[in-house]
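Thread: 9YT complex, take 2
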Amino acid sequence: MIVKQLDDLLGTEAEVRGAAFESRRILLAADGLGYSLHDTVVKPGSVQELEYRNHVESNYCIAGSGTVENVATGEVFDLRPGTLYTLDRHERHIIRAGDEGLRFVCIFTPALTGREVHDENGSYGLPD
Ligand SMILES: CC(=O)NCC[C@H](N)C(=O)O
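Output below.
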């Protein structure tokens, strides 16, 4: 059994900061599960255009408000606590956070190692 506590990860390498988000990586590739699980906090008013070409990402909103847009179709979906979106077709998407920001429980498959950074496409690379 693996048991972890978010407080214990804060201030360690498992806490990753991007321009618009903080991602607390609770489970990573090193845990050997095939997926990684993150507690992701998105900054109020931020806009992120992303496209995970190498991963499938699921985001389950647990706080805040905003929208996610499917760039190819123009569809815009409201995000609020209880909303899940999964980028099962690696869709290019735009996340717009409202005034309170957003907080997600986030799962990536395959698992992130924790060293990835967004490239020019908004994608994370695969490990070497
Ligand atoms: C929704 C969002 O902010 N995605 C970017 C960060 C990603 N969820 C991560 O945890 O690395």
